[in-house]
Structures are given as C-alpha cells and as structure tokens.
Write a structure and sequence with these properties.
Blueprint (H helix, E strand, L loop, with lengths): L1 E4 L11 E3 L4 E3 L19 E4 L1 H7 L5 H13 L1 H7 L3 H21 L16 H62 L3 H15 L7 H14 L2 H21 L5 H19 L1
Antiparallel strand pairs: 1-4, 2-3
Organism: Penicillium olsonii
InterPro entries: CAD_CENP-Q
Pfam family, one: CENP-Q
C-alpha cells in the first residue's frame, strides 16, 4: 500500500521541514481548530492505494502538464528566499530549495499519477451553490416538520378531549344501568312482565298482527290469578266503598244549596 496525500494550502508563515530519514520535505499540519466556525476549509486526507493499482492504472503526466509543474516549482523559490533577511541564510535556503526542485524535476517524468476523474476537479463555486441549495431544502423541510408537529399536537389534544368525554359517557351509562337494575329489583313481577311486553311491542315491526293482543289478554288473565293482585284489588275496593259511604250524606246538599240560592235571589228582587 502506497499512501498518497492531497496538496492543500497551509498557513502563510508555515515552512517545509526536512525529514532526515526519507530526505523529503513535508509541510506542517494545519491546525483546523484555529479556523473560525462557519467558514469552509480544506481538510487533509490520506488515502492508501495498492501498489498494484498504481502500476496498472497510474501513468506519468503529459509533457505540457509537466512544464506547468516545473514552473510552479520555480515560483516557490522566491517566497522562501525573500523570507530570510540574513544573506547567509538566504543563500542556504536558496541552495536547499534548488536541490529539492532539481530532485523533483528529475523524478517528475517517472512519477505515476492517478487518472483524471470528475471528482478530482474541485469546483469551489459549484460546491457553494450546492451547499446553499441543500440549506434551502433543509429550511423548507424543517418548516414542514414544525407544521406537522403542531398539527399532531392539535390532533392529540382533540383526541384526549374526546377520550375524556367518551369515558365520562361510559361512566354515566354504567351508573344509569346500575340504577335501572336497582329499581328493577324493587318492581312487582307483573310490572316487569308488562315492561318486557311493552319493549317487545316497541321493537316489533309495524305489521298489524294479533299476537300482541293475545299476549296482553293472557297477561291480564294471569293478573286475575295472582293472589297479591287480588288482595290489592280488595283493598282498593274497600277504600272506594268507604269513600262512597262518607260522601253519601252530602248527595242532597247540592240541591239544597241551589234552592237556597234561588230564595236569596227572589228575596233580593222583592226588596228592590
């Protein structure tokens, strides 16, 4: 596996350091913690490529591209040399840079490079436009999510209210059923039969039949045979006879009042 690195911009005051073991120069690592939040930056990334892939798919750069690379190497000499004010250090830096450039120029024709792909051409403006588009879509989706959450909360509140009302209605229905059963226990058996008969007649179809009349007649016949009903009928008959005997002396009172009223009217007319 051969590691390959991306050439990325570093700080302005960064300078290359020489590795004595490999005789190569390396740029210092950039501290991404110093980058202000909210600004885009390029992050170094190392990718390990198999040597077999390098030998089979990678190839040297074309000659025009090699010339551009050599010009870039030469353009790097001036900033390094002009940074040192000391003449001796400037000469040493110039010699070191020239040695590195000569070494790279010799190796450049034999250096394999990966084939050019669409992903290798980084377009910063296109990336920014895509980023803005994604942010706009994200804002729209967030607004939709907020609206859906508000609608869900509204429906949940309505569901809770309806559930509470349903529970209250169920409680009232159970209470009414318990009260009806309690009152049914105190009813006379014949009244229960009459209630059952009335409910059966109300739930029957509207066709005219004589079944109800027969059932009603049989129920009345059963009342005549009930000893408790007979006892109640005797008590009621006794009360009626007692009331009739108590009101018998007053049967002629109405005629006497009528005659007295007529006499008073006649007397008042004679006096006038």
């Amino acid at each position: 596996m051969v590691p390959t690195a991306l050439f990325l911009p570093c700080e302005r005051d960064a300078s290359p350091t020489l590795n004595p073991r490999t005789s190569t120069y390396a740029m210092p690592k950039r501290k991404h913690e110093d980058v202000p939040e909210g600004y885009a930056y390029l992050k170094p990334q190392v990718r390990r490529v198999p040597e077999k892939t390098i030998k089979s798919k990678w190839a040297p750069l074309p000659e025009p591209v090699q010339e551009n690379v050599r010009e870039m190497f030469h353009s790097l000499e001036r900033p390094v040399i002009m940074r040192n004010q000391n003449e001796r250090k400037r000469i040493e830096a110039q010699g070191a840079v020239q040695a590195v450039v000569r070494n790279l120029n010799k190796r450049l024709p034999r250096m394999p490079f990966p084939p050019v792909t669409k992903d290798s051409n980084f377009d910063y403006e296109s990336a920014l436009n895509e980023h803005r588009l994604l942010e706009a879509n994200l804002a729209t989706m967030n607004d939709s999510v907020d609206l859906l959450k508000a609608e869900i909360a509204k429906e949940e509140a309505l569901l809770a209210s309806e559930t509470k009302a349903l529970q209250e209605m169920d409680k009232n229905a159970r209470r009414a059923e318990a009260e009806r059963k309690r009152q049914t226990k105190n009813e006379h058996p014949m009244l229960r039969q009459l209630d059952a008969l009335s409910r059966a007649e109300s739930s029957a179809s509207s066709d005219f039949t004589l079944l109800g009349a027969k059932e009603s007649q049989s129920t009345l016949d059963a009342l005549d045979d009930d000893p408790e009903v007979l006892r109640l009928m005797k008590q009621l008959n006794g009360h009626l006879q007692s009331m009739q005997s108590n009101t018998a002396p007053f049967s002629d009172l109405g005629d006497a009042i009528t005659r007295s009223q007529a006499a008073l009217d006649l007397y008042s007319m004679t006096n006038d």
